[in-house]
Amino acid sequence: MQIISAKDYGQLSWQASKLLEAQLVLKPDSVLGLATGSSPLGIYEELVRAYQAGAVDFSHVRTVNLDEYVGLPGDHPQSYARFMREHLFSHVNIDPANTHIPDGMNPDAEAECARYDELIHRLGGIDLQLLGLGPNGHIGFNEPEDYFPAGTHKVALTEATIQANKRFFDSEDQVPRFAYTMGVREIMQSRHVVLVVSGESKAKIVKEAFFGPVKPQVPASILQLHRRFTLVADEAALSGVSK
Ligand code: GLP
User: Are strands 62-65 and 31-34 parallel, antiparallel or unpaired?
Assistant: First the structure.
């Protein structure tokens, strides 16, 4: 595990965006695994800036997103499909046909999850997977469980996640109860994993996930076993482990 410690969220976003930019310069047709949530927002802003400055080209890039809420159409304001369009895809020269997100409107969970895993394999796997960290240690929507879930699957969101994500909806009962999420297998098979985490509210889970035992009750802890895992965190998020 490589740790990049940033002073604050701005520096963290800048540092992490440089890792993605380097990936695209070295391999212009990279498969990027992308994440939603508030943590990667600064990275997407930096990437748009880099694109506008002519420093990166997305014309050959392929993307696979981690997850999507079940039951939300792609144009719903809180769908992850819309999030990605608003924060990244509509601002860069990526071909929409090369962007992939689980289809939250497919009622056949088994078929949707199998389709998504096949798609990732057909693309040749993920070159760089970007992750945020849920307050309960989830990655994507891999929630704390008694086992590590392997492939893409339908997951019942935990009460902690519903509480954490209700800020984005008009009311708590509008938060979807289920999501489709990439499993830890495809995440762990990515050639490089970059997790970004910011703020004191995540300090406790950062300590548990990356400085404690590997266990499915803290899904992100499995990343300690990844050959090329970069944790990009600000000082506040690292405050539980530094000194
Ligand atoms: C959501 C997403 C995760 C994300 C997490 C943390 O539940 N499914 O991929 O990492 O929230 O979000 P934030 O970065 O807003 O704390």
Answer: parallel
